[in-house]
Each structure stands twice: as C-alpha cells, then as structure tokens.
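Hi support team,

I'm filing this because I wasn't sure whether my run with adenosine-5'-triphosphate finished correctly. The job status page said complete, but I'd like someone to confirm that the output block is well-formed before I use it downstream. Pasting the exact inputs I used:
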Amino acid sequence: MITSLIRRAIQAGFVIFAMTLIVFIGVNVIGNPVDILINPDLNQAERLRVVESLGLDRPLWQQYLSFLHGLAQGDFGDSFVYSKPALDVIVERLPATLELALCAMLIAIVVGLPLGLYAGLYPNRVSSKIIMTGSILGFSLPTFWVGLMFILLFAVQLGWLPSNGRGETELLFGARWSFLTADGLAHLFLPALNLALFKTSLILRLTRAGVQEVVMQDYVKFARAKGLRENRIIFVHILKNLMIPVVTIIGLEFGSLIAFSVVTESIFGWPGMGKLIIDSINLLDRPVIVAYLMMMVVLFVSLNFIIDICYTLLDPRVRLDGKG
Amino acid sequence: MTALLDVRNLVTTFPGGAGTGLRAVDDVSFQLARGEVLGLVGESGSGKSVTGFSIMGLVDWPGKIAEGQIIFDGSDLAKASVETRRSLRGRRIAMVFQDPMMTLNPVLRVGTQMTEALHAHEKIGKAEARARARDALGLVGMPSPEERLDAYPHQLSGGMRQRVAIAIAFLHRPDLIVADEPTTALDVTIQAQIISEFQKLTEDSGTAVIWITHDLAIVSGLADRIAVMYGGRIVEAGGIAEVLERPRHPYTRGLIQSVPSENSRGTRLTQIPGVTPSLINMPEGCAFRTRCARATAACVQRPGRFGDEDSYHRCFHPHEEALR
Ligand SMILES: Nc1ncnc2c1ncn2[C@@H]1O[C@H](COP(=O)(O)OP(=O)(O)OP(=O)(O)O)[C@@H](O)[C@H]1O
Ligand code: SF4
Ligand SMILES: [Mg+2]
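And here is everything the job wrote out:
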C-alpha cells in the first residue's frame, strides 16, 4: 500500500506539472491584459513602464519559467487588480467557498443517501416514486432559477431568511467563518441549499441504483438465509458495499461543488472564490486566474488521492497488503 | 412417524403470462424424515431452486407462494409470520448456495460473517461466538481456522469459501439443510472432498438434506430418495435405488441414459430431444409431451400422481421394465 501511495503521489506530481503548462499557455492566449489594466490616457513611455513592471514584455517562455519559479515558492505574482499576491487574494476567499461547499455537500449526503437507500429498498412504494420524481426536478431545474425562486419566496415574500452576503462571521484558525454564528448560519442556509439541490439528486439516484444492484447479489440472499435481522442486512451488508461507489462520487462532486459554486455565489452575493474568479476573468486579472486554476488542479488531485485512500479502507479487495 | 418436512401441493408463482401467473413450482409434494437425504434433480429452469427458496421463505419478490403448505416440524411455514420464518432460517433450516464466489459478502471478514449468524439467534458473548466460529471452520476441514476468521473472502479459494458457507450452515446444527448445487462450481477433486465432508457432518448431526443438483451421479451416492422435477412439477419420486434401476417416467429414463456410466461404455449416449420449454409456453397437460417419444392423445390431459406418497410418477404410459 505504501508503494502504491508513492506511485500515486508521483503521478499526481506529473499531472500538476502538465497543468501548469496548460494553464499558463491557455491564459496567455486569451486577451491582452495591458489593454484592460492600463489607463488608455497614459502616454507610450508610461505604458511601457507599467508593462515592464508587470513583466509582460518578456518572451512567454521566460514568463513561464519565472511563473514556475514563483509557483515553487507559492508566489503567483501580484494581482493586477488588487495589487497584492494573487494567492492571498484567493486564500482570503477560500473559507467562504469552502464552508458553502461543505454545507451543501452535507445537505446532499444527509438528504440524498437515506432517501436513495429507501427508494432502492422499496422501489414499488408510492413514497419511493414520489422521491424519484422529486429527484428528477432536482436534476433538471436550473440552479440559478431555483436560487432566484428561493430568494423570492424565503427572503422577499416570507422574509424568513437573508439572501445576500455572509452575515456575521467568527474567527477560527485565522479565517472568518459564517457557520459559527446564528446570523451567519441564516445567511448560509439558502445558498447552501441551492447549491446542494443538484448534488442531492445525484447522490440519491446513485444510491438507489447501487442498492438495487447490491440487493440482487447472492450474498444478500445468503445473509437472509442465515436468519439475520433486516437492520443488519441493510446497514451492514448492503450499506458497506454501497459506500464504495458513493464515496467516490461524493469526493469527486465535492471538487466540482467548489469549482462550480460560481452561479450560486453570484446570485446570493456570497463573497467566495467563484465570484472572485468571474470578476477576475472579466478583468483579465491573469495571476488570480492562474492561481485559481492551479488551486483547482491541486484540489482535484488531492481529492482523488483521498478517494483512493478511502477506497482501500472500504474495499478489502484493493487493499494490497491485506493480511490473511 | 411424522415427517420433519411435509410439503403439500406447493405452488410458487411469478407474475407474467396469462391468468394466475407463471408457476415456477407447480403442485409439488414431498416428505422428508429426520436425517433423510432427498436428491432434487432436474434440468436448468425446472424449479429446483425456487422450491428450495420457497422452503426457506426467500422467494424473490414479486414471486410468491400461491398455494399449498410447507409443514415443518408440525407447523405450516407458508402461513408463518415474517419473524417466525427469520428465526427458523439459519437456526433450524439452513441453506448452502451454488456459487461460493458470490455467497460471501466481499467487504466483511469471514469471522464477522460467521459470528453474526450466531448473534442473530443466540445471546452469546463475542469471545464465545468467535470460538464457536473457529471450531465450526475446523469441522469442515479448514486449515488454520483461527487465522481464516480474519481473512476476507477474496483471500480464499472457491473450495475454501464453500467450506465457510457450509460451516455457517452447520453453526446451529439445523434440522434441515437445503443444499442448492453446492459443488457445481468447484473442481472435481474438491467436489468429492466437500461432498464427503458434508455427508459426515449431516450424519453426525442427524440433519436432513435436500440436495439440489442436475448431476445424477452425485445424487446416486448421496441420497436416500430422489425427486425428479420437470417444468415445475415432480414427475417421479421414490427410493434412490428403485428409481435409478426402474425409472418409470420417460423423462427420468432419458436423464439416466444421458449420464455416462460403466455399463454404457461403448454405446452411444442417448439424449433427450428438444429443449426445456420456458414457463411461458409450457405445454398443456403433461409438460414433457412435446419431447416424449411415448406421447399419445391422452397426454394433453394433466397426469395425476400414480402410486403412493413415497413412490410415484406422473405419466400415462410409464415404463415398466428395469433399465438394462
Ligand atoms: N426472480 C425470478 N423472477 C422471475 N422468474 C424466476 C425468478 N426466479 C426463478 N424464476 C423462474 O422460475 C423457473 C425455475 O427457476 P429455478 O431457478 O428454480 O430453476 P433451477 O431448477 O434451479 O435451475 P438451475 O439448474 O439453472 O439452477 C425458471 O423458469 C425461472 O425463469
Ligand atoms: S404422460 Fe405422456 S407425454 Fe408425459 S411423459 Fe408420459 S407418455 Fe410422455
Ligand atoms: Mg438453481
């Protein structure tokens, strides 16, 4: 298992390296930051000076090398817009996105998993059919539309919940978090629910499909033949096998929750990374875009790594050094 | 003498076809005394497994026991409550399945799968359960049973896994074991080992066995009585020697003649012409008549049971002469 982990880590290193290249080139081909960042009223000399100070005059390969060099030190260059290190700009926004994504994932799991289990175990009950129909809605209604409806209903019509910003925050581990205060939680609820909707349906349907596959297996019938109680069959024999695909999906989807929280963050004015990246793309704030993309690459690679480890913990068949 | 198991006019149906559904088991009756071994023989799809599952109370939804009685030790299982049936399963009536690769749960240790079967029926401590599981493994000829308790199924060979399944079936010294082709999936040498171990265990504990197979050779060495199934019905039943020597039903005769044996060396093996009809287009009257050389107009009627409870056939034109 140690060797396989090391092999995995080396692979991950290659992926990240390849991504630095792709990200750097990709970002340098789109648009010219000079046109956007520099006041058109400046004269030629002043323009050149700014271009030089941003390092935009050097050939691309030199820019790439210094980019790599900086990257090794966690330095993506200064944001053109905020005039401070790009990484800092992003890391400042990270807690907001992280707590939103975690909350959404939590909702998706807590709601999707039990409902999927139920619908899979008792596919012919009316309640199961209602659940499955509901999940189709969760799948097909566009996130932005649902978000707007949430605001209209809960914030505007009923006035139960706030619809903009993070509310009060509390300091923990050097970052500010909304979920630590009642007001923050109230602000967190609607966007998290909005973001969770699609993932809930996904987890629900995946769980149901998994259950229906597992209950057909001989080992479930054999467990019944042993006279086990239904609870033990469902929560040990079925659930343990089910967790293998479900954990994989949860891991991968968590990455996409962070990466694609853009829409929800924009609608609910949630000051997270999604909103930041949209603004940065509009302004062609290259260092921030690059730092963000690299961060996502590292995030996905690490998530895959964690999923792999979970896998080996959940499935004895892939545990390489299993004793016995 | 009262029988341990008395199956009377059992009908198990799956939805489909016209009318009352597809009769996978159709008017099946047989008796089994304590310690007796019944060989249940027939081609694929003849309803052997469904008969076994009906006795276990494990017929897959939407199939159900539609008619008849399964009287086990004086009470009718067909009418018993779900909890009664559960408490009998594994404790007084156990089952061994065909494919040992599929019957053990891949994510649970062998020890867990054994001790849970004990805990389901008895209030005993962990250490005691483990000791009993270990002893049970020893009884079925498992080398170093203590270590095997911590193994996962994939770490064991097919033969070893089937030994585990058999050990589980014998944990509570049941009155009856339904063995559904337990050696079909194994190598011939391992088959022989397992059969002889199984035989020894049943003799020691006085367990009655329904041994399901399509292999007449196994049954002839193992069973006291035999019941031959065709199209969901028992077409011939009786003492093993009696039936093998003087099969009355043309189907039984065909089956026996299609098995290579000492006396048939040098002669051409006969085969039953045609294929087993599916349940949906089972012929009216005698189900075998489309493949039977002796069929006459009379065979459009459904043959009843000719003979007494212990020894009978369902054929209008039975063979009278002994085989060779
Ligand atoms: N879950 C099910 N749903 C629908 N039909 C079923 C189901 N299980 C069994 N049957 C039908 O019942 C009939 C008898 O099947 P059964 O499994 O008892 O045959 P078998 O004699 O055990 O054959 P084999 O030697 O292949 O195991 C078959 O025609 C089969 O199609
Ligand atoms: S009843 Fe008729 S068709 Fe059926 S086995 Fe006997 S002779 Fe053949
Ligand atoms: Mg079968």
